[in-house]
Amino acid sequence: MDLGIRGRTALVCAGSKGLGKGCAASLAREGVNLVITARGADALEATAVELRKLGVNVRTVAGDITTPEGREAALKTCPSPDILVNNAGGPPPGDFRAWDRDAWVEAVEANMITPILLIRAVLDGMIARKFGRIVNITSGAVKAPIPELGLSNGARTGLTGFIAGLSRTTPRHNVTINNLLPGPFDTDRLRSNFEFNAKKLGKTAEELRKARADANPAGRFGTIEEFGDACAFLCSAQAGYITGQNLLMDGGSYPGTF
Questions:
Q1: What does R_g of the chain's alpha carbons equal in angstroms?
Q2: Which of 23, 68, 12 is nearest to 247 (CA)?
Q3: Is the CB of residue 179 less than 8 Å from the CB of residue 162?
Q4: Cα dist. 38→41, 58, 60, 62, 81 in Å?
Q5: Do 8 and 82 meet the contact criterion of CB atoms below 8 Å apart?
Q6: Which of the chain's termini has less CB crowding within 10 Å, N or C?
């Protein structure tokens, strides 16, 4: 299926590893030129080399997208993207009793304010060009909060509420805004969560990993390729009638009807 976005340009945040890399790779396979950001320059350049083999132009911006300097550098390199994939690492797990005001501000800056500011910077250009696709990578915790990830639960839910309003104002201009909610995917983030909980429970990270995978209705964790392909479809020409949605990808873990 041709997604109708060949030759478009995408800004993919935190695109050197994990879910961001999966999104970048799927868009590249559809012929989308890329600007990818990440904090680690070495991993970023290695990923760019991989993606260029798919026949697209890939530019890199090393820096922290959650800082003003990181956003300025990304937007200087890609001021008018057709596609924006918002992504940033989640805040660390812990007990809310240990989180002071600075911890909360940092979480909200990274996982709510940063995507909003990037959307503000590119949205009007998309509207003027009559094409735009914005995908925010949030978390399945928006629907089913994870106790030790309270910082993420709060910040990402705030973004979700904001997007619910904004996304209804843009589709008449062929600009859509949607959220992708990952459940357990085989990424560094998931592995670090297992290590955190293993110390608390007196078990090994591998024991927790196996138990979590076995408990999932799919019997496994998701792959970044599956996640990336879902992102690419939401960015497609065919997805112009989908906006303001929260697509949960968790292998069936969430037990609710809605």
A1: 18
A2: 23
A3: no
A4: 7, 13, 8, 5, 17
A5: yes
A6: C
What pLDDT sits at residue 52?
A: 98
Question: Strand (E) positions, the chain?
Answer: 9-12, 33-38, 58-62, 83-86, 132-137, 175-182, 246-249
- Nearest by Cα to 21 from 171, 209, 175, 227: 227
**Maximum separation of any 2 CA atoms in the chain, in Å:** 56
- Tokens, residue 115: 């995507």
Give the strand order in the sheet containing 33-38: 58-62, 33-38, 9-12, 83-86, 132-137, 175-182, 246-249
Residue position matching structure tokens 């709510």: 112
The CA–CA distances, whole Å, from 35 to 28, 38, 77, 212 equal 11, 10, 8, 35
Strand partners, 61: 37
At 55, the amino acid letter reads G
Q: Quick one: tokens of 60?
A: 């890199």
C-alpha 115/C-alpha 162 separation (Å) is 11
**Single-letter amino acid, residue 146:** I
pLDDT, one tens digit per residue, over 157-188 is 999 999 999 999 999 999 999 999 999 998 87
- Cβ atoms of 225 and 26 within 8 Å: the answer is yes
Strand partners, 249: 182
Is residue 138 classed exposed, middle or buried when 0-12, 13-18 and 19+ CB atoms within 10 A define those classes?
Answer: buried
Number of other residues whose CB lies within 10 A of the CB of residue 183 = 21
* Residue 66: φ, ψ to 5°: -85, 0
DSSP secondary structure letters along 112-172? IIHHHHHHHHHHHHHHHHT-EEEEEE--GGGTS--GGGHHHHHHHHHHHHHHHHHTTSSGG
Report whether 231 contacts 182 (CB < 8 A).
no
